[in-house]
Amino acid sequence: MRRRRTIMPRMITATTPIITMMIMPTLITAITITTVITITTVITTTITTTSIATTIITTTITPMLMTTSEPAAVGAGSGMNADEAAALYRLMTWLSPAFPVGAFSYSSGIEWAVEAGDITDAASLRDWLAAMLGEGSGFCDAVFLAQAHRAASAQDEDGLREIAELAAAFVPSRERQLETSTQGRAFIEIARSAWACDGLDGMVAACGGMVYPVAVGVVSAGHAVPLEPAMHAFLHAVVSNWISAGARLVPLGQTDSQRILARLEADVAATAKRALEASLDDLGSACFRADLASLRHETQYTRLFRS
After folding, report:
1. What is the DSSP string of 58-105?
2. Backbone angles phi, psi at 136, to 5 degrees
3. Where in the chain is the domain with CATH 1.10.4190.10?
């Protein structure tokens, strides 16, 4: 025996629940209620009777159009609170090519490497930069940034002074010293003018002069920007500036430049991880050719860059 019954449409609100009922009769096999909702709901009930069995009645309401009178909370679902959004905004500003620290004027010895034939295309530039990043000045600067950030966060002026002095003494050539100290001074001056915060002046005074990674570490700590994102943003900015210099010197197109940046992503992440776990005792460079390039650039006859 088969019987069909149709219930006329009725209005369903956005708060209609999903209902599941378990019934244990003796003579009905199954009752299935299927509901399809657009703006109104049509409920169709089919009853089939065969033999003695267990009956399960399941009503599933799946709305096609639902509204609510309650507005979503500001920032709901964004995954970032106000402090995290502010930190991201500041890092994007401070380590953008538009931030006026004069980074475009320096090549970190890449200009001499191109003239000497060590860098001739995108592949050789990528290999050169990977070595500088993981085994040379990239890693050392990352360690100095991490140590300066921690000392500044702890208000350890004596420790911060020692870190700043060691970082200034650690560069291998006069031009690299000019590069990192000039950028560090510019970074601090602009940050204090446009992004002042409590305690920053005291930290700057404790350091005396600051090289670039120490300056980034101190300012990031002063604004309560977490160390790990500050580290990644700093290394991204350094690598991007190296690629920009290499692209103008080789020369390379914009697509090749972006491919190099993409292929260095894992190197940046690995260097950041090592630097975050390192101490000052782990400092060291194995990029002798890059250090020689920065030394020889001082006497290079034709130059576009200051280092």
Report:
1. EEEEEESS---SSPPPTTTTSS--HHHHHHHHHHHHHTSTTSSS-GGG
2. -130, -135
3. 82-299
Q: Identify the CA nearest to 180 among candidates 192, 171, 193.
A: 171
Q: What is the pLDDT of residues 83-126, one digit of tens each?
A: 999 999 999 999 999 999 999 999 999 999 999 999 999 999 99
pLDDT at 206: 87
Letter string b/e over residues 92-115, b meaning 16 or more CB atoms within 10 A of that residue's CB: eebbeeebebebebbbbbbbbbbb
**CATH class of domain segment(s) 82-299:** mainly alpha
Give the Cα separation of 82 and 199 in Å (integer). 21
What distances in angstroms separate CA 103 from CA 6, 96, 224, 253, one per listed residue?
75, 10, 25, 20
Burial of 74: CB neighbours in 10 Å, binned 0-12, 13-18, 19+: exposed
Token pair recorded at residue 7? 């219930």
Whether the ω angle into residue 9 lies within 30 degrees of 0, i.e. cis, is no
How far is it, in rounded angstroms, from Cα 134 to Cα 20?
Answer: 60
